[in-house]
Write a structure and sequence with these properties.
The structure is a homodecamer of 115-residue chains. Chain A has 115 residues and is α+β, with helices and mostly antiparallel strands. Chain A is built from two helices and six strands. In chain A, a hairpin with a 2-residue loop joins strand 5 and strand 6. The longest helix of chain A is centred in the C-terminal third of the chain and has 16 residues.
Chain lengths: 115, 115, 115, 115, 115, 115, 115, 115, 115, 115
Amino acid sequence: MNKIDILETFENQYPERNYKIIHTAPEFTSVCPKTGQPDFATIILEYIPDKLCIELKSLKLYYNSFRNDGIFYENVTNKILEDLVTVCKPRFMKIVANFNVRGGISSEIIAEYKK
Amino acid sequence: MNKIDILETFENQYPERNYKIIHTAPEFTSVCPKTGQPDFATIILEYIPDKLCIELKSLKLYYNSFRNDGIFYENVTNKILEDLVTVCKPRFMKIVANFNVRGGISSEIIAEYKK
Amino acid sequence: MNKIDILETFENQYPERNYKIIHTAPEFTSVCPKTGQPDFATIILEYIPDKLCIELKSLKLYYNSFRNDGIFYENVTNKILEDLVTVCKPRFMKIVANFNVRGGISSEIIAEYKK
Amino acid sequence: MNKIDILETFENQYPERNYKIIHTAPEFTSVCPKTGQPDFATIILEYIPDKLCIELKSLKLYYNSFRNDGIFYENVTNKILEDLVTVCKPRFMKIVANFNVRGGISSEIIAEYKK
Amino acid sequence: MNKIDILETFENQYPERNYKIIHTAPEFTSVCPKTGQPDFATIILEYIPDKLCIELKSLKLYYNSFRNDGIFYENVTNKILEDLVTVCKPRFMKIVANFNVRGGISSEIIAEYKK
Amino acid sequence: MNKIDILETFENQYPERNYKIIHTAPEFTSVCPKTGQPDFATIILEYIPDKLCIELKSLKLYYNSFRNDGIFYENVTNKILEDLVTVCKPRFMKIVANFNVRGGISSEIIAEYKK
Amino acid sequence: MNKIDILETFENQYPERNYKIIHTAPEFTSVCPKTGQPDFATIILEYIPDKLCIELKSLKLYYNSFRNDGIFYENVTNKILEDLVTVCKPRFMKIVANFNVRGGISSEIIAEYKK
Amino acid sequence: MNKIDILETFENQYPERNYKIIHTAPEFTSVCPKTGQPDFATIILEYIPDKLCIELKSLKLYYNSFRNDGIFYENVTNKILEDLVTVCKPRFMKIVANFNVRGGISSEIIAEYKK
Amino acid sequence: MNKIDILETFENQYPERNYKIIHTAPEFTSVCPKTGQPDFATIILEYIPDKLCIELKSLKLYYNSFRNDGIFYENVTNKILEDLVTVCKPRFMKIVANFNVRGGISSEIIAEYKK
Amino acid sequence: MNKIDILETFENQYPERNYKIIHTAPEFTSVCPKTGQPDFATIILEYIPDKLCIELKSLKLYYNSFRNDGIFYENVTNKILEDLVTVCKPRFMKIVANFNVRGGISSEIIAEYKK
């Protein structure tokens, strides 16, 4: 199954107003493509919906689908942004990914989309 | 009784000044319409009064009235904003609703009204 | 004795510069006019002095003078602002009053004055 | 349905060892029998299992069953202890209930059972 | 009215068990008998009830009755212990009083009673 | 490969002294056998070595080997204890496993071994 | 004037009870006898009074009297203990002195007296 | 010796870039000119150097030179700003002075200089 | 080997978007050129990549290469900025270096580059 | 020069009393003998002196002497304990070494000596 097909949406009941939705997921994990060791991150999704909102349980399953994928920090952050923009077509969206310490260094990647 | 009729106001004694009032309620609870399980949130109400201020005890009772209602995060936030704007006709109002972790994800909804 | 007469000032030694003074008083208490029960707040006073600065000990005594007064959150905040502006004629002044939880809700009132 | 019937158990796989299980539930809510207003608490359950462990989802549903019950702090704490002891017959059990501020006072009740 | 007469009790429903009750009151205030200036403290009451429990609202009113009394730290702590022991005859009781900074020094007084 | 074979040890250089070693691993993840959803925990290993110490990198790989296993909280804690005792034969060992919130409840399991 | 003569006492009103008094002073400063540079510490005084209690304002002045004294960490802690024991003859006394970082190392000295 | 003569500077190696230097000194102490009692503050110095940087050890000695001076909060903050501007001629400089609680009130003074 | 040659880059997969990368390294250490004593800092690197991203392991090795270098706070911050700009040619880059307390004063240096 | 020769002592002025001295050093660094990468730890030294106290500056230099040594966690902790016991012959001594996260795991080693 294509990863993006996991995501579900529902109709925004208040499209006349620009309001913000923030979902914070501290249990994201994927695998480092170089070492094969697991990576851990908190993913913060912030967006202003247009006609569609992202369904919360499908978001969790979408995040879980990265569990055994080998993917770099910068790429996972941008891919999540692109998938979510494709599916829910928001007015604004931002992804903040905070990765745990590796080699004594923690990392944060921040990517935004504006309609 | 209609939910909005619980809310009471009193006259703003300082209408010539734009000042801000913030009420933070960490004990909000409603019910998830999908699972029937309780949801818990902190509701932060911030507004600049015009002629009327919201009476604090009636605000508590209004929040309590959601206790057994089945309602989604996005909708409860926007409904509270609309009810409070209807009743106190402020110059500015913002609702921030911080919902507890569900499925490993916490959520925040932020909606604003400007006269 | 009139409450405002408690306040004393001293001459600003650096009137040519716009600098900021912040006094934070976490021990403010007054009485709720509806229930007769005590209220507790932290009062943050922030101002840019013009010719006069507020003397710190007199400020403490002025705050203490509210100890047995019955007065609402919104009114006490605006009254403190007006008394202090009258006495020290600042270029800018802001009062932030953080009231403790009552009925499960904490409250903050923020009022500003600009010359 | 009797409240105690909600609770389910499963067989302890390691009965030869005295080990400790702690479940912390920060979303407990009941109703004050005097005022009819909601109370909120964190319930910490700590026990050493004998032959049976408490099933986590049934524990959540058991806690949720108090949502609209009118019951005092001291009684709810002791009742939870007695119900859980009846159902899982542990070697040791402790209930700590931390109730939110009411009238400027927060309360904690701690009750223990030893075989 | 005698200060001790403000305190009310109710019957302990679980006298066969030694369980602990802790009430934390961060809004205690009295007056320094030397300077006439207000003192502020958090009073932590911890006890094991015998036949009687202390009613929470009457405890709040009892604490409030010290608001304009001039009394030293050591004395207020021991007096509260003695009044509460007299009224509820507990198996064990402890009072911890944390007083705010005065002259750059904060103070804590701890007194216990055992039957 | 058998999970226990991942673990490596090295010779304790100071066997004449009872000293304590604590390894805290906040990135443990396994899978709930009922729901198939991932669980997350911090595993704290505390032990007094006898002749052997546990090699740190092999411990990490051992923990990682649970990544896609379906196993209950109580069982994973006791299994880790038994595997580590088998491999390093310590004088004392304790496992504390703190699991993230599920259904509004967080859980901690504590198991000990003494020679 | 002799440093010890600064200290004043008052009569303990509750000598029949062993209760504890703790005074925490985060603004202690003296001078390093080797470098001439200022040292800073928090001094925690804990004691069980017998017939006498230490007067709080005199304690502050006593601490202030070290301001320009050159004295080592270990000595200042033991000297304060000895002076206070001499003056108030307590049943028990403990001094904890937490010194700020010097050369990347912070220090704590703990000394006790028992009658 | 004149207080300002204690301060030393060194040549800025990167004058072509506007970069910021912040030195935070939590161990500042002077004396209250009214009461003769010591005051304690954290002094935060923030500046953009032009041709000169302030030498760190001389800054510490300069701060130490206020140890036995009687000087008001507002004046010490502005004096430090003027002395440091005189000596290092920065493009921008800000002094934030956070004074400890006195009479239940803490104070912060913030003064800025722009070329 | 030249310090800058340690740094490696990889191709930015999303050059059409301005996104931010932040690497926080709390284990930086160098040596004070005046005293020969070690300095400790947290280095925060924040940048918007153009065609190249900085490889994380090489960044760690680059930081480690300062371990036994004698270099001043201001210079190490600016040198790191210049080396990283040279190697990865970003659209924007900022270095924040937080140095531990020395002589009672902590220091922060902030330098930026814009294309 | 032998590492132990760096350590200096001075005579304990209060040998008749069992008092405790704690020195906390958050800037310890050594090198991993397997990977050659730097390790970082906080070393807490706690002891009851007999006739000798450890001189603080020499302790710092002793810790610094490990900067480029390759040595395992368990060994460095026990070696520091043995060197310090040899030099100052205390009545009691404890070393707690908290090592930073490596491979997602932080480690603490605790070793004690009793006369």
